[in-house]
Amino acid sequence: MKTYFFKIYGRVQGVGFRPFIYKLAKELNLKGYVLNTSSCVEISLQGGKKSIDNFIERVKNEAPPLSRIERIEGNLSEEKEFIDFFIKESKKDEGFNFISPDIAICDDCLKELFDPNDRRYKYPFINCTNCGPRYTIIEDLPYDREKTTMKVFKMCEKCEKEYKDPTSRRFHAQPNACFTCGPEIWIENLKEDKIIKENIFKELSNILKKGEIVIIKGVGGFHIAVDATNSDAVKKLREKKKRPTKPFALMMKDIDMIKKYCFVNEKEEEILKSKERPIVLLKIINLKDISPLVAPDNKYLGVMLPYAPYHYLIFEEFSNPIIMTSGNLSDEPIINDNQEAKEKLNHITNHFVLHNRDIERRVDDSVVFIEKNNINFIRRARGYAPDPIKISISLKPTLSLGGELKNTFSLGLDNYVFMSPHIGDLKDKETLDVYEETIENYIKLFKISPEILVCDLHPQYLSTEFGEKFKKYLEVKYMQHHKAHGYSLILDREIESDIIIFSFDGTGFGEDKNIWGGEVFIGNINELNRVAHFKYFPMTKSDYIIEKPNRIAYLYTKTFLKSYQKNLFKDMNPFEKEILDKMVEKNENIIYTSSCGRIFDIVSSILDIKKEVSFEGEAAISLEMVANDSNENSSYYNYEIQKNEFYEIDLKKVIESIILEKSSFNKSDIAKKFHNTIAKICLDISKILKEEYKIKNVGFTGGVFQNRLLISIINEIFKNEDFILYFHNRVPPNDGGISLGQIILGRKE
Ligand code: ZN
Ligand code: ZN
Ligand code: FE
User: Fold this and answer.
1) What gap in Å lies between CA 708 and CA 731, rounded to an integer?
2) What SS3 state is found at 563?
3) What is the distance in A from the centroid of ligand 2 to the CA of 156?
4) Interval 412-438: pLDDT, tens
5) Backbone φ, ψ for residue 47 (5° rounding)
6) For residue 309, which phi and psi values (nearest 5 degrees)?
7) Tens digit of pLDDT for each residue in 385-407?
8) Around ion ligand 2, which residues have CB less than 5 A away?
């Protein structure tokens, strides 16, 4: 008989790990104890060598579904004899921890939810150690009820009994609750100053049926809900939310309902039903009764399945798809407090479904799509964050601050990067506050005190400004935006050898002070070198993040294709033209860019698809949607490559051909041909670089590669070529992935 002491690191708290250890130790007749520390689970075990080996083997193989073991350390211990196996009180220690993301209701809880004989029959907050909220309710670690927003609910006798019973699924389930002792949900009508607590799901269904907008408090924030089949209601929502065209996400009762409207392949079904329950962008079969205003002119619908228990209860009473859009005002962060929600959203509606389980930390719904069985993130948030991204290099304590739009930040140490959930656009003052608050919170929670700060090279990014405040105390480093995209892909896919990287997006500040956005790099995890880019073209300096496509088209043609201008811009405001002309003549407020995203905008504008936009990327998305209608298979436009210091890709001829074909060809064929051209450019450049540098790996990163049509064409035309292709699959290709790439500057020498 000897005593062994083990430390198990990873996601081992709040996932039923201690009861699992307890049961296993009992079964194998081992004595000792288990306890949570703030960085790991400690186990002391007394027994024969053989049963202890067996124990560890079984820990590895049978650990609870939500756990993730990263490392087990073990050695002999001097500890005295134990008479039993028991669970000891948690303690604080040094070192960082893992926090489970919020997980959708599990099958066992779902069964109980609809079992009339269960004491939690239709209890809106049912959960267990295998499911329920985590990240959004945790105030501090180690993970115990007293350190969550559940602390205000004192467990009733029955709940307490489960909580203390190592054989129960609710043993140490911190959010454990029931009708008697737990959180409750109610409807508030602000106008009539009325609170409804009885039959609230029936009541909610009646409100939705009347075409009214309802605010519903969720797991990580508030949703704005409306009957998706009621066009008047959707229209009202668009007006009130000041969101004219951007698609809304839907929640649907079950997978059968989704299949009525959308194509769902095996992988998509798996992701829809996964414990993370993201919004999945699905190809529409037929909208049927769903209002066309939900996703105007879009080929895809963003759909998710219910994930909180009360979402299921809503669909018990209401049978239509429901718009569930995040309860923020256009670019502001999501709201997490009842009072704040009522104050900020009362101009949208009087109907609020609220509950009294506080949200400690906000988190949006995640958004993904599946292409060729690969999961692509548009937004990484609920269900995924704050799960760390494991990387192949080792980091000093490092904080990388991300970009400006679609911001995330990352906190890294050793082989782990804790990436924040999607935060949003920092230009908004309130989002910036949330950003700073969340950074502070992460540092405290994960106990990583950064020594190195990494910012974008852009001097005017608010994240950069934030970083520079710390110059006195910390080492501040800078990384060029498109290189950050490139490194993000390298870390995301753990690419170890040399690679050619296409980093195509809207805009980012370049090393030569021009605005980059259509860049090609070669290199590896140690260095990336720019080898090619789209030829620079002029753009106005004013707020160039969301620019009017027709202005960019105007300046492009003015510079390179002057003879076509008169015809193309007949309808443009003469005053606007004059201003633009002056800007160019004086070379004032003009910047030069190699942006691939802006080229999509130019084409979208020239084809009269989108001349003005209401959200970032809209013109490019519309162009993709129009191109989807084409049967045109593989033709493309001719372009030129000039070799100067870099290979310069000149699209003048492409744009000219598009202008010429516009009058005689159908728009969707032209749009498709343009997509083919961009893919062809990637292939041609790859071939040139392969010849020159003997590199076979090719990667794609940047917001442009959220374009599914482009991804599928690339997959197609590279198919019979000798290349290995890499797309993102753990973080978004858009600026939401930037902070992961930046973190590389914190690596240990
Ligand atoms: Zn459960
Ligand atoms: Zn209870
Ligand atoms: Fe970018």
Assistant:
1) 16
2) helix
3) 4
4) 999 999 999 999 999 888 899 999 999
5) 170, -175
6) -55, -40
7) 999 999 999 999 999 999 999 99
8) 156, 159, 178, 180-181
Beginning with the edge strand found earlier in the chain, give each strand of the sheet holding 351-355 in spatial order.
194-196, 185-189, 351-355, 214-217, 222-227, 322-326, 250-251, 300-304, 279-283, 367-371, 374-379
Query: How large is the greatest C-alpha to C-alpha distance in the chain, in angstroms?
Result: 92
Q: Is the pLDDT of residue 546 over 70?
A: no
Expressed in angstroms and rounded, the spacing between residue 309 Cα and the centre of ligand 1 is 10
615 vs 489: which has the higher pLDDT: 489
Which residue type, as a one-letter code, is found at position 324? M
Q: Could you give the angle at which helices 652-661 and 667-693 cross, rounded to 10 degrees? A: 160
Sequence length of the chain is: 749
Q: Binning pLDDT at 50, 70 and 90, where does residue 543 land?
A: low
**Which pair of tokens denotes residue 362?**
């906000």
Shortest-distance ligand to the CA of residue 742 = 3
d(CA 249, CA 369): 13
Note the ligand closest to the C-alpha atom of 128: 1
Residue 296 pLDDT more than 60? Answer: yes
pLDDT of amino acid 89: 85
Catalytic machinery residues: 18, 36
Cα 158 to middle of ligand 2, angstroms: 6
Residues 639-654 pLDDT 10s: 999 999 999 999 999 9
- Relative to the alpha carbon of 160, which ligand is closest? 2
Ligand 3 center to residue 662 CA distance, Å?
Answer: 30
- Return the ligand number nearest the Cα of 506: 3
Alpha helix segments (H runs only) across 392-511:
429-446, 462-468, 481-492
Q: How far is the CA of 451 from the centre of ligand 3 (A)?
A: 25
Signed CA dihedral, 617, 622, 625, 631: sign only = negative
What is the number of other CB atoms lying within 10 angstroms of the CB of residue 82?
16
Q: How far is the CA of 145 from the centre of ligand 2 (A)?
A: 14
Name the pTM for this structure: 0.95
| Token pair belonging to 283 | 């190809």
Question: 695 near 685, Cβ under 8 Å?
Answer: no
- Ligand 3 mean position to 168 CA, how many Å? 48
Tell me the pLDDT tens digit for each residue of 110-128: 999 999 999 999 999 999 9
C-alpha to C-alpha distance for 491 and 97, rounded to whole angstroms: 21
